[in-house]
What we know:
Blueprint: H1 3-38, E1 50-60, E2 66-67, E3 74-75, E4 77-88, E5 91-102, E6 106-110, E7 113-117, E8 123-125, E9 130-132, H2 137-146, E10 159-166, E11 171-180, E12 196-199, E13 205-207, H3 211-244
Parallel strand pairs: 7-12, 8-13
Antiparallel strand pairs: 1-6, 1-11, 2-3, 4-5, 4-10, 6-7, 9-10, 11-12, 11-13
Helix pairs in contact: 1-3
Amino acid sequence: MEGDMVKLLFYCIAGFVVGMVLFFGSFRKFREKRMIENTPTSKVRSLAMGRVEVYGSVLPDKRAEIVAPFSRTKCCYCDWKIEEYKQQGKSSRWVTSHRGVLGDHFYLQDDTGTVLVDPEGAEVDIPVDFRATQLDDKIRSYLDSQGIAYRRWFGNRKMRFTERYLVKDDKVYIMGFAGDNPFVEDATSDRNEKDIMIQKKGFYYISDRPEKEVLKKYVLKVAGGMIGGGALSVVCLFIIFAITGIL
């Protein structure tokens, strides 16, 4: 088998695997979509233990306020990454070299009260808030404090810095589990929601979109996985059979 055919076979096998992952992953996304549709949105004051859906504004927990590493923005949650531009032969691409998440807890507030949220383990679906490719004093200071190299023999490395964060008064939709608040002793709170913390137990999703927008996005994910992933796998499988002489 010639070199070009071997390459094509390799790409088709990889494409088939990716297509199957997307196809079967769409069934999980469909189950999550149905869960969102079938769970009524609760007011904070009427929260009960178990699976919940809430929508409100972000409030910082003063015990856990943080500062985003590159922009130095005060926020309640931040995930960040550093990418480096790598050249390999004739191709080049951005490669993630470091990433992290900051933020332990924040509050969600609606017109009836506030409830503590632990974002650990959640799928946080929020857009990029900050991106930079130039080193400034803030970024340089953070890199130095973390021991992250950014210099070469001649000049600085080509790097990209990205942050996504939640700040005070951001609107968020949360699908999660209302469990015990470990910071409050049982039976010592005069209001039920004070002894509740939203946390991970099963499907856990946080978005800055309202529920209708979240569902629209899920429709696209499900359709893309089922149709796009299925079509990719079928086409790649057909080519694999043709190359190997099975057809």
